Amino acid sequence: MIRILIADDEPMVRAGVRAIVATATDPGITVVAEASDGRQAVELVQRHRPQVAVLDIRMPGTGGMEAAAEIRRTVPETGVVMLTTFGEDEYILRALGEGATGFLIKSGDPEELIAGIRAVADGAAYLSPKVAARVVAHLAAGGAGAAAGRRSAARARVGALTPRERDVLGFLGSGLSNGQIARRLRLAEGTVKAHVSSILARLGVDNRAAAAVVAHEAGVAPVPSDRPRREEG
Known about the structure:
- By secondary structure, the protein is α/β, with parallel strands linked by helices.
- It has two domains: 2-121, Rossmann fold (3-Layer(aba) Sandwich), CATH 3.40.50; 143-218, Arc Repressor Mutant, subunit A, CATH 1.10.10.10.
- Helices cover 54% and strands 13% of the residues.
- The chain has a six-stranded parallel sheet with strand order 2-1-3-4-5-6, with helices on both faces.
- β1, α1 and β2 form a beta-alpha-beta unit.
- The two termini are 15 Å apart.
- Mean pLDDT is 82; it is low at 224-233.
- InterPro entries: CheY-like_superfamily, NreC/VraR/RcsB-like_REC, Sig_transdc_resp-reg_C-effctor, Sig_transdc_resp-reg_receiver, Tscrpt_reg_LuxR_C, WalR-like.
- Residues 154-219 form the HTH luxR-type domain.
């Protein structure tokens, strides 16, 4: 059973997330706490220790990014899924550095919410296809020269990886969990975990979602589509 916390200042959004989880065709997720602001979310995460905290990126007072940073510092075993809306691209890149490993559009397909929660609970990064597409577009928005410079820098960083690490990074950029990558590459899951740790260190990033952005910039991960991806069993 995956235990989650929901934090959003809008009661209807919290009710919507709760309803999606309750009516999922593949059960196994339960809501253990709800919060209306980031400070309360941190306190409840520290008390209940859920596997996943689902946070609104913008809340009055302590927002989702500040809450994600504090959760990462005090309860690092809890993964963070950030709920966002269109027009908040600049917040997404900031939140990557604050410990969030999942991003979902509030108006997205309910299937994405379930897939995102399961992926983050399993230790994977999950970017909603629409969010991933907007992140890549945002990174390219600084102009052709700046975008080319970032692509070149990303390729140089990826070039320092071993061939196997580049394979793992490609799948990581697609949002696969360690177990899924292990099955694709016919490796032990512990070996994949060691590769991921090495990749993060070599790329100089703190989490899988940030590594996924590098993978997209370097062209070693597929371009995201708008179709939600089903998790493998």
